[in-house]
Q: What sequence folds into this?
């Protein structure tokens, strides 16, 4: 089996590319699982990518898993990616 080196990042970015990471999911053992979670997060925003956090565009993207930052990641197999994103956005908006 290949090493678990895939992750999903949900980010909030301004038009000048400044922003921050809302959520890190990983490591994924299979690349198709990354795509599945990314594809679930994107429609969960329901066209509200720019309204969820005023002044920012929220999006999800696949990326390499940063082993050195492993403590910042949530295990994607133990949690619902969409529920985690909703909680992260609520934490920022509060």
A:
């Amino acid at each position: 089996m290949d090493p678990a080196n895939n992750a999903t990042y949900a980010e909030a970015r301004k038009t000048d590319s400044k922003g921050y990471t809302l959520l890190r999911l990983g490591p994924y053992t299979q690349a198709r699982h990354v795509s599945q979670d990314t594809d679930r997060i994107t429609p969960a925003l329901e066209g509200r990518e720019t309204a969820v956090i005023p002044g920012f565009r929220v999006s999800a993207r696949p990326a390499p898993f940063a082993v050195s930052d492993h403590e910042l990641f949530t295990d994607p197999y133990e949690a619902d990616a969409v529920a985690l994103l909703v909680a992260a956005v609520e934490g920022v908006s509060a």
